[in-house]
Amino acid sequence: MKRHISLLLAVVLTSAVLGMSGCTDSETGGTSSKAGTSSSAGTASSGTSSSVNISSEEEESIYHAYSEVDSIDEFKTTYVNLMEDYFDSMNEQTISGSYDWTDTSEEDKIGLGAEGAQNMFDMDTETKWCSPCVDVEGCSAIIWSMTQAVTVEGYSLTTANDNEMFTDRNPVTWRLYGATELPEAITKAQIADGTVPDGWTLIDAVEGANLPDTNFTEVAMMAELPGTYTYFMFIIDKTENVGSSLQLSEFHLYGEVQE
């Protein structure tokens, strides 16, 4: 009898220990980790990288339905356009369509000719980012740094100069992440299967967007998970016509500056 009781206690204690060994973030569906120290340097943070699968059918989707703000004018007077004064530079980890930053010529770097992703941050709607999206559904991860930590409350996207002619180039599904230190480089395989290196924190994830097929049209939305970061990553998971090009004129972060 004593032996049976001892075995029963051992099983109960073992189950309790195992039940406390995992810590998951229910909002991002990934493994929880402490945020690193903010750094403006362009070097990747050290440590072992792990991926967080956000596309598993067994886990709750991180995406929410597309929803614009009621008044973009009120939105733009309430929050600071963070890209205007605090954008620093594109990061070489950026993957844009069929082009990889480090594998292309200066002329075609991360875009078609002069239509690279950096054009989304130049405060000029006459330029645009246009890139092929033919190899996988999720083919782009645009990564950049700010000159200091900023708090993102929302963001805006602006359609390009010829969306009325090319009506299948708008993004439909995307993700926005932030980081205090630059994580390990993301790969095309990770973009395609919905994973990100450890260190990125989800800010927003939208699916089923219906951006207007009009030229130079800005739409804005609030972030589901506002946060303060120095590095950002904008992933396009799907365009209106998978296998076609994707394009945007501008992408702006809105929020507050950390003094």
Brief descriptors of the model:
mainly beta, eight-stranded mixed beta sheet, two-stranded antiparallel sheet, 259 residues, globular
SSE topology:
Layout: H1 2-19, E1 24-25, E2 30-31, E3 51-53, E4 64-65, H2 72-78, E5 80-81, H3 82-86, E6 87-90, E7 95-96, E8 99-100, E9 111-112, E10 115-116, E11 129-132, E12 140-158, E13 171-179, H4 188-193, E14 195-197, E15 201-207, E16 218-239, E17 245-248, E18 250-257
Q: How many angstroms separate the termini?
A: 67 Å
State the CATH superfamily name.
Galactose-binding domain-like
User: Under the CATH scheme, which architecture would be assigned?
Assistant: Sandwich
Overall mean confidence score, pLDDT: 77
DSSP summary, beta strand count: 18
Helical residue percent? Answer: 10-25%
Number of domains: 1
Quaternary structure: single chain
Shape: globular
> How would you sum up the major sheet?
8 strands, mixed
What fraction of residues sit in β-strands? 35-45%
**pLDDT < 50 stretches:** 1-43, 45-58, 99-110
The third-level CATH topology is: Jelly Rolls
Order of helices and strands: HEEEEHEHEEEEEEEEHEEEEE
